[in-house]
Amino acid sequence: MRAVLFERFGELPQVHEVPDPVCPPDGAVVRVAATGLCRSDWHAWTGHDPDVVLPHVPGHEFAGEIIEVGAEVRSRHIGERVTAPFVCACGNCASCRRGQHQVCDHQQQPGFTHWGSFAEYVVIDVADVNAVPLPDGLGLDVAASLGCRFATAYRAVVARGRVRSGDWFAVHGCGGLGLSAVMIAIAGGARVVAIDPAPAARERATALGAAAVLDPGSLDVPAAVREITGGGAAVSLDAIGGVGSLVNSIGSLRTGGRHVQAGLMGAATDVPADVIALTVARELELLGSHGMAAHDYPAMLARIESGELEPGRLIRRRIGLTDAAAELAALGTAEVDGITLIEP
């Protein structure tokens, strides 16, 4: 099969002919119809993820058709249209027994722990647990955009942030993850302040219904959010992953507010002591959010089927495998205002 492969961290990947994946006894092989280009893939390419072993094929949000299933698989079948969360759970560990598949103790992650979906085929491990069948009316391109950013945003907003109708919700960073959060929060009746340095990203947030947009380079973000919201946001999400966005997010909260960290931190960072003091003084909640389990997808898919959520609006560009390498390398500095799909 053709795949985007890199042999050294930070070195421009190339499209190569590589062996087709071998189907595990409990897994499935999927023909990739589309796969998202995500900043997490950039983290893998730069060497930030210790699970990545070279040579490597990135890619972790995808959708396609099952072409092979292992002998132990019972609930999935050849020809089925599926997607999968970027965390593929074992289904048996202590976390999985609690229903917390997204933090499985023995998780596998396509594009990180093994070769991913920047290819013609990809493996879903433990397919009975992790392969998510898709509604007939949902296109594989839109489904590919769900696996990391949209699903992560859905759980971050609904389950971790517990955003309610009428809440003020601040989103720091309006790439694919942040814009997904904007859409989901607004659909739930929240009022959104969207923060991003890129004019195009702010325009996209406005088009989705954000009540206010801010350029973090031109003002004191926490002060501006507190002024707009009349005292601070009930929930604030760092969708970037950096000290600046984390500090701004926590500082934007009202007393008793909730900070949700969904953006990956690129390297070891020190949180300023005054942020911890503020967390104590205002009795803030600091919450992590790490993807979404396959068993939680049906509720999200139902809202997409009903038209309440429209993730297809976030797809901005479509490219082929030959363009993916340069696009991946550019993610470290590129302005992102939506989701780019690779269609092998």
UniProtKB/TrEMBL annotation:
Keywords: Metal-binding, Oxidoreductase, Zinc. SUPFAM superfamilies: GroES-like, NAD(P)-binding Rossmann-fold domains. It holds the Pfam family ADH_zinc_N. The keyword Oxidoreductase applies. Its cofactor is Zn(2+). It comes from the Bacteria. The keyword Oxidoreductase applies. CDD domains: Zn_ADH6 (cd08260). Residues 10-342 form the Enoyl reductase (ER) domain. Belongs to the zinc-containing alcohol dehydrogenase family. This is Zinc-dependent alcohol dehydrogenase family protein. It comes from Jatrophihabitans cynanchi.
